[in-house]
Amino acid sequence: MVKKVLLSLALGLMTLALTWPAQAQEKVVNIYSARHYESDKELFEQFQKDTGIPVNVVSAAAPELIERIKREGEATEADLFITVDGGILYSAKEAGVLAPIDSALVKENVPANLRDKDNLWVGLTTRARIIVYSKERVKPGDVANYEDLADPKWKGKTLARPSSSLYDEPGGKTYDFNRRMKAGSINLLFPLTNQFVSAILNK
Question: What is the pTM of this model?
Fold first, then answer.
C-alpha cells in the first residue's frame, strides 16, 4: 500500500515529532501540497524550529500530485498529502493513494465528523462562502441563503465567480443550483478575485 496519509498540518507534524527518534537531523518531512497559504509555510517553519526536522514541500495542482504518487507507488517519498477540497480527497481515496491514520493525537483533537470514516484523511480548514449585498438596495431578509439568489427578481443584479470544482459536476445539488443561477440571475462572471472585488466596489 502506498504510504500516503493526509493529516492536519499541526497535528500531523506533531505526531511525526512524537514518534520519530532523537536523531531528528537525519529525518525530513516530505509534503506534497496543493495549498498556497502563508499560514502553512509558518507552520512548517515552526515545526522545523521546534524539532530540528527539515520540511520539504513539493507544490503542484492536486490532480498532478495524485498522479505523481500513483507513479511513485511504494517508492514515493511523500509523507503528507495536503489539498483543498472534498472532491479531491474523494479522488485520492478512490485512487488508493491514502493510507489509514493511526494516531491517538489526531483522534483526540479532530472530531469524528471531520475525519474520513476509514481514517484516510482528516479535515484541516473550513472555507466561508459569504454573500455581500448593498444595504441601500437590499433588505437583510431578502437574501437569507444561496437558494434565494436563484430567484428571478435578482436577474441582472448578481455577480459571482465561476466554479470548476469537482463538487460542481453534473448530477449534484450544487451543479443544479449553479445551472439555475446562470440561467436566471447572474449577469457577470469574473475569473479573477481582484476583478470580482473591483466590480463590487465600483458598482
Answer: 0.64
